[in-house]
Write a structure and sequence with these properties.
- This protein has a domain at 232-430.
- It is built from 19 helices and no strands.
- It has helices spanning 11-28, 33-45, 64-69, 78-104, 112-136, 140-156, 160-174, 178-186, 190-205, 208-211, 213-226, 245-253, 276-299, 308-326, 339-354, 361-378, 382-395, 398-412, 415-429.
- It is globular.
- The two termini are 39 Å apart.
Length: 430
């Protein structure tokens, strides 16, 4: 495989990913509740049954096309299928690292030891989230890769059709990448937007060629009814393990009329009770403010940018945090949406450490805050800090609140600050 050649990866990088691959295979052999459900649904699909009915396994919430695409795995023993799915997730992570190098790091002449250390720390900070997806056999890495790969191909590689196909596939599977479509619209990539729309329609009707038109139409209708992201009643989420705005604000301001809603081991979180109308207005205004802040990111120094790729990664990192917060039904395994922002913040910290110029107190404070957020999110595994602390942090929706603070950090740590740090490093080299 050409992307595994030495020119793409150093020996240290290959060693780290080899360890991660072995771990992924071993973990998949014993776990995979969600992938088990996906494979069962795929079998039901080819039996012309209702794949959205209660099967006794985890409910299926994704498109008929995804169930169709994974059908080859159902022809294998379940243990082998789980391992292959874990390997695919590993490859998605591998490609995400390549995208980090091709977008975030591409224009920075960095020594190999810098990149290797950067990868090591990034993997450590992302490991718990990756592990959650691995244990469950989830699709978060797939959707994240489709989103970033599609935008990379359209914006930086100028391959509209290829990038549009990946984005359309991501939208079909989990809806959330639809915000990438609006991002392209604001970037004035109108041709790409049109191609995404065409491909998306194709992903909806394509399964009809194999499954039959009426059966596919029935499944699409049931998919809409059973998808939390499209349900009218999903505005207020009474779920401590979900961390979008739809869970955070009700957690602090809504009365769900249940004792456990405002009590965890004696801890309480309600600030004030708002009416449904007031809380809905608060949610919508918050989403609007996040959208306006994202537009400010997109149009910041639009005609004065020196390193386009760096700005694109910055925008993508902001987009994915924004997506996490505005869409409902964001459980713990979707915290991997933090990965692009984590890479950006970590790169900022590394440049700050390598720069020999005396940093301002404000810059140091921001770096410490960014480090704290990354470390806290990275340590939120039950094996690391225990079930009690995890449940307490979930009770207060700390992951979602940290995502909001991270948006503020990204807004402040603009790419020109990273470029200034690079200049300082180059000045000392010369």
């Amino acid at each position: 495989m050409p992307f595994l050649k030495q020119k793409y990866f150093s020996g240290v990088e290959l060693f780290l990913f080899l360890i991660l691959l072995v771990y992924s295979i071993l973990k998949a052999n014993a776990h995979g509740d969600d992938i088990n459900a996906y494979l069962h649904v795929s079998e039901l699909l080819f039996q012309q049954k209702n794949i959205y009915a209660d099967t006794g396994l985890n409910p299926y919430q994704y498109s008929p096309l995804f169930a169709y695409l994974i059908h080859p795995l159902t022809l294998l023993p379940i243990e082998i299928a789980r391992i292959l799915w874990a390997i695919l997730n590993f490859l998605f992570l591998l490609r995400l690292w390549m995208l980090v190098k091709n977008i975030l790091l591409i224009n920075f002449p960095l020594p190999k030891h810098f990149i290797s250390l950067f990868l090591f720390v990034l993997l450590l900070l992302s490991f718990d989230s990756f592990n959650n997806n691995l244990i469950l056999g989830q699709i978060t890495l797939l959707v994240l890769w489709l989103s970033i790969e599609g935008l990379y191909q359209v914006i930086l590689k100028k391959k509209n059709s290829l990038g549009a196909f990946w984005i359309a596939l991501g939208i079909n599977i989990k809806i959330i990448p639809v915000l990438a479509l609006f991002y392209l619209l604001f970037k004035q990539r109108f041709l790409a937007v049109g191609i995404v729309a065409a491909f998306f329609i194709g992903t909806l009707i394509g399964p009809s060629l194999v499954l039959g038109h009426q059966y596919n139409i029935d499944l699409l209708s049931k998919w809409k009814e059973n998808t939390p992201l499209l349900q009218k009643g999903s505005t207020f989420e009474n779920n401590n393990t979900h961390h979008s705005l739809s869970a955070i604000f009700p957690g602090y301001f809504h009365d769900f009329a249940s004792p456990e809603d405002n009590n965890f081991e004696g801890f309480q979180r309600k600030i004030v009770y708002l009416s449904d109308t007031s809380l809905t207005i608060l949610l919508q205004v918050s989403r609007l403010l996040l959208l306006l802040s994202f537009l400010a990111i997109i149009f910041y120094q639009r005609k004065k940018r020196k390193q386009q790729a760096l700005y694109i990664w910055w925008e993508i990192a902001y987009l994915l945090l924004f997506s996490f917060l505005v869409f409902p039904n964001q459980p713990r395994y979707t915290l991997f949406y933090f990965f692009p922002a984590c890479a950006y913040l970590l790169f900022f910290i590394f440049l700050l450490l390598y720069s020999k110029d005396k940093a301002s107190f404000r810059l140091k404070t921001v770096a410490v805050l960014a480090s704290f957020i990354m470390l806290l999110l990275a340590s939120m595994g039950r094996d690391l800090i225990g079930r009690y602390l995890i449940n307490l942090l979930d009770f207060y929706h700390i992951p979602g609140l940290l995502f909001i603070v991270t948006l503020g950090l990204l807004f402040w740590i603009k790419p020109n600050k990273l470029l200034a740090l690079e200049s300082a490093i180059n000045k000392h080299k010369n």
